Structures are given as C-alpha cells and as structure tokens.
Structures
1.
Amino acid sequence: MKGRINETEGKIKEAAGKLVGNERLEAKGKIQKTLGKAQAKFGDVKQNLKDAAQTVVK
C-alpha cells in the first residue's frame, strides 16, 4: 500500500513540477514515483509468496 501511495505522490509532484517549470520538483517526483513502483512490486512479490505458502500448508 505504501508503495502505491509513494508512486501516486511522485506522479503528482512530477506533474506539478512540469506545470510550474520547477525542474527540481519534477526530478524529485520522478524519483519518488520510481521508488514507489519498486516498493509496490516488492510488496506484491512478498504477498504472492505468503499466498503460495498458505496454499502449500493447506
């Protein structure tokens, strides 16, 4: 969940930076968006492993 929130916040910052011409804000947004995507992917993999482990246990 946190990864998706960070990704969304990054998209907003990136768009705001483009809108007002603030390259630094735009760059920060891109970084936050990328980190959020990675965090979300990690969370997805972690959840998939938990689900697979539950299936094996059953």
2.
Amino acid sequence: MGKVVRLAEHRRRKTRIAFTRSELNQLFSLYSRHVIRGEWRDYAIDHGERLAAFSVYRRSIDLPLFTITKTKLPGNGAERFRIESRRGRLYEGGSIADALAQINKLPHLVTQTG
C-alpha cells in the first residue's frame, strides 16, 4: 500500500544537488583517460542535499585519490567545485572545467616500455 504524504511537507523538502549531464561527461572523460593510463581503477558518485561528490580510486579497497565536490552557495545559489586529495584541498572555484584542469596539471604515473 502507498504512503500518504502531505503536500505541504513534500514541498518543504530540500532538493538534492547533482552533477549535470555535461559535468558528468567531463568527469568521465577525465576518468577514462586515467583508466587507460592505468592510474585509476574505480570511482564512486554520491548525491545529497548539501553536495554531490565524484571520487576516484587507484584500487577499490583504497581511500579515494581525489574527490571532486559540487556545492551551492547559500543565497545566490552559485555553484562551487572543490577538489580534495588525501593531503587536503587542491582547488576551489566556480567552474568544473577549471577544477578538472587542476587535476591534469598534477604529476601522474609514467611507465617505461622496453
């Protein structure tokens, strides 16, 4: 049997913050490039009332290498993107493209062949 919900209570619920399709495309593009290099192997996406998070892992059992979060500022509702690693905050700004560019600037694994 269905649950009866009062309309007034339903309207008061806070909306969840989520990545847009465009943002997800950018995140998965970056993720796939690092997977091809053998640097990243797993990811997790979380959406909530206060933030959305995309975490990347070297191995599934490890702590995340990076977590990219999206939040909305109170008042004007402007979006903020933050990149954090195990060492702390690496970047905070208003554009996901700028945030992801910061990850591309970081050193990455280099493998020798031959």
3.
Amino acid sequence: MHEVTRTLDITREVCPMTYVRTKLALEALEEGAVLEVLLRGEEPLKNVPRNAREEGHAVLSLELRDDGSHRLLLRKQGG
C-alpha cells in the first residue's frame, strides 16, 4: 500500500485541464511523494497517466472505483 501525500479530484475537469491540474499538484510535492488523482472519462484516463510517464513520474496504480471514476496513484520522480 502506498501512503498518499495529497489527493487531487479532477472528476469535473476536462482535457487539457485534467493534466494541467495534475502537473501543478506534482510540482508542489517533494520527490518521492505519492499523488492520488481521482478522474473520470476516457480522455483523462488515457492522457493523464501517459503524460505523467512522459514527464518521468511513476504510475503506481490505476483502478476503477465503485462510482465509475478511476483512482490513479503517481509517484513524483526527479526534482
């Protein structure tokens, strides 16, 4: 189990704001911190994990929640 440092709910956001909000949240964290991102919809589900990986962060898990949204855990890598 990963200890979550911060939770970001972007279930009401649309692309490209979904990743902009995620990126800003990651920038505010220390290296190694875990960001829990709650998201909804096909585009964010595809784009947010991909963009995080492209920027060098680790995707720890992605799971479907009971309400139809998804829970994504990211670990901040690099300074």
4.
Amino acid sequence: MIEINACGLSCPEPVVMLAKALKDKPEEAVICVDAPAACENCTRFATNAGYSVEKTTQDNKTVLTCRIKR
C-alpha cells in the first residue's frame, strides 16, 4: 500500500503526487488531504484511473483510500 500525505498542499500538487503513485497500478493507495478542492480532484483522478475511492474525514482532514477496481 502506498501512503501519501498531501496536507497543506494546494492543487494541482496532491493530484500530481497521486498520479505518480498510481502510475504502476498498485492495488491500494491512501492519500490524506485537507483542502476540499484537492479531495474532489484526487477523487476524480483516481476514479478515472480505474480505482474506487472511499472517503473518511477526521480532524478537518480527508483520507481517500483508492482501491483498484476488479
């Protein structure tokens, strides 16, 4: 599993980090963001890349768990 901490970063940086992580099609990647735009953009990118995305929110941070669709 790949873990990415993109808190404090503004777009497009979180999306670029996620794109690099998903390049080799890992089974699962987790990215933590704290900006609504980053959450929306990362979710859209992962979905378009063939991943399902589960969102959990804690302490004003959103954790996106991206799992490859089978």
